[in-house]
Each structure stands twice: as C-alpha cells, then as structure tokens.
Design a protein that fits this description.
With 240 residues, the protein is mainly beta. The protein is built from one helix and 14 strands, in the order ββββββββββαββββ. The strands form three sheets. Strands 1, 3, 4, 5, 6, 7, 10, 13 and 14 form a nine-stranded mixed β-sheet that branches. A hairpin with a 5-residue loop joins β13 and β14.
C-alpha cells in the first residue's frame, strides 16, 4: 500500500513572517484521486485501490498529452490581499515608511493573486462501458514526465529562486522546484452504464499572478513585469 499525502486542492493566501524549511526536490508523494462532479461514475467508488476480481475495464491510452493541462476539481481563483511593505511615496511626514531604508537595489517579486491551480498532464487514458450496468474500471499511469517551476515570461535562475521562495513562504510549503511523476500509479472506480470515463495523471501546479521588479534603497519598486508563475506541488489522478 502506497503512503499518500493529501494536499489541499485550493490554495489559500496566507502571509507569515517566518518561512518554513524548503521542501525536498525528491518528494514522491501521490495525492488521493480527485473526481469531477460530472464524471459518470458511481458516487464514492473512485479509489486508489483497484478491484482485483470480476470484470474490470482497463484504461485505453488517449492521444498525446505533451503540453496539456487539465482542470482540478474544486479549484477556484482566490484573490488575496498581500502585505506589501513598499514605500508608497506618501508625503505625510508622520509616515514611518518615509524614513525607511531598504539597502542596495535588489531583485524583488510580489504575489498579487492566488489563481486557479491546474494539472500538468503526463498520461491520459479512458474506458467506455457499453453494458447496461456499472462496471469496475482501472487506470494505471504508463508515462512519466518532469515538471518544473515556470512563468509566462522568460525569467532567469535568480528570478526562479525568488519566486520559489515567495510561493513556498506565502502560499504553500509543499511546492517543489522540480517534480517527476511516477509510472504504475493506479486508480479505480465504477463507470456507469453506457458511459465513458476519462483519467488524467500528472503534476498539480500551484499557480499565482504577480510581478518582478527592482527594489531601491528608498523601498520603492520599479521595472515591474507582471506574469503568471507556477510550481509543482504534488501528483495524482483526475477523473472526469
């Protein structure tokens, strides 16, 4: 029996003064399978422990999954207020930030919104039940892929390190710099009569929106570039 770690499917934006220890790049935990509310399966039947007897429909490989993403059931965009201790340029002499000194110019990243997470697909499969009664089905991952932190704009290694630390500290400590999905991970359930069930297996990507910039000695930030950023935070099956 595989030990599984259940991760929250919806990221909640929390701001903390202390960052947790960085996660290992070699974590291989697999989340419990997630099922779409519209999937044609018997309620409560989807499990990571496949049936071992009787008639079982084996998954049939779908078309190529290269570059494919899939929705994760229950995910929503979560707008979050972010504490941003940046000098605002207010003329009020009583504003303590007027006298703040941030040191030499440095690279800076800021999350402005926690957006809907997605599944980066490594393997796709399906079964079709042509019978007039429900049947057991089983999907087994047969492809593996490595997923890494990325952004909608080209960024260098230094910026990726800043983004990783920011997401890790303010969104979830389960993110990884790199994640390789496994081969041989199984999921099963009961597909309804005259129905087709689809399964997608891959890495769950934590996604945020924000900007990079340069923070100057007066604590102002310039040269802002807004972008979407994502990082792997686990793997598992999505059934639809």
């Amino acid at each position: 029996m595989r030990t599984r770690i259940i991760a929250s499917t919806v990221g909640i934006l929390l701001i903390s003064g202390a960052a947790p220890a960085l996660a290992s790049d070699t974590d291989t935990s697999v989340d419990n399978p997630l099922t779409s509310s519209t999937a044609p399966v018997e309620p409560g039947s989807v499990t990571e422990d496949p049936a071992t007897s009787g008639e079982v429909l084996e998954g049939i490989e779908s078309t190529t999954t290269e570059g494919e993403t899939a929705e994760i059931p229950g995910e929503t965009d979560t707008a979050g207020e972010v504490d941003d201790p940046i000098y605002t340029g207010k003329p009020d002499p009583e504003d303590p930030l007027n006298s703040e000194y941030c040191g030499p110019s440095t690279g800076f990243v800021q999350i402005t919104k926690n957006t809907k997470n997605t599944l980066s697909v490594a393997d796709s499969t399906f079964v079709t039940n042509n019978k007039s009664y429900s049947l057991d089905f089983k999907f087994t991952s047969k492809k593996s892929n490595t997923f890494t932190l990325g952004a909608s704009l080209a960024i260098g290694v230094e910026w990726k390190a800043l983004w990783f630390s920011k997401i890790h500290a303010t969104i979830t400590g389960s993110v990884q710099k790199s994640w390789t999905t496994e081969i041989g991970v199984e999921v099963s359930g009961k597909v309804l009569a005259h129905s087709t069930v689809y399964g997608k297996y891959g890495a769950k990507m934590e996604r945020v929106y924000g900007y990079t910039g340069t923070r100057y000695s007066n604590c102002q930030v310039g040269n802002k570039q807004y972008m979407n950023v994502w990082a792997p935070r686990g793997e598992g099956w999505v059934i639809s």
